[in-house]
Amino acid sequence: MNPGQAPLRIALxxxxxxxxxxxxxxxxxxxxxxxxxxxxEFERQMGCSIREFFEHAxxxxxxxxxxxxxxxxxQGDSCVLATGGGAVLRSINREHLHGRTKVVYLxxxxxxxxxxxxxxQNRPLLQVADPAAKLVELYAERDPLYxxxxxxxxxxxxxxxxxxxxAVLLKLELAGVLRRQ
Length: 181
Ligand code: S3P
Fold this sequence. Notes:
Blueprint: E1 9-13, H1 20-31, E2 35-37, H2 38-46, H3 50-57, H4 59-73, E3 79-82, H5 91-100, E4 102-107, H6 110-116, H7 131-149, E5 152-155, H8 161-174
Helix pairs in contact: 1-8, 2-4, 3-4, 6-7
Bound molecules: shikimate-3-phosphate (S3P).
């Protein structure tokens, strides 16, 4: 860390399956920063999977804990933070993310996410008869919120993880968030 300098926190937002955790982990490595993941932190603190938590305590309770986590994780040292796809639903989370971190929205149309998530069994919101329709619904509800909270939007398309990480780094440099390497 650089003493005296404001922490550099980069948060990744986007729908389930857009690659927040994978891109975040690689981005953190490239920037030599710690990587944090609000979903992993949730599971670590609660001692159970998110899917189990949804089944036993429900989504509202999940959102309460998630709000506390976003508040905590956006106040620490420099880091790259992957957030859960629904973290933008509460305005207080959007405020904390936008005010305390540089937010990158990994954008993808829902059809591509359906392809990526076709075998997923972990995401409680997608364990429904028609996950494709659910992703279209989530996209309609959340795309405006991701855009509202984001400082940068990256089209994920279908490049490699390293291609995506390079695109994020370039945009952060152009935005003056990172110094040119
Ligand atoms: C959620 C997305 C999940 C996880 C939880 C709720 C959502 O994270 O936080 O299942 O509301 O979209 P990912 O975006 O990493 O799947």
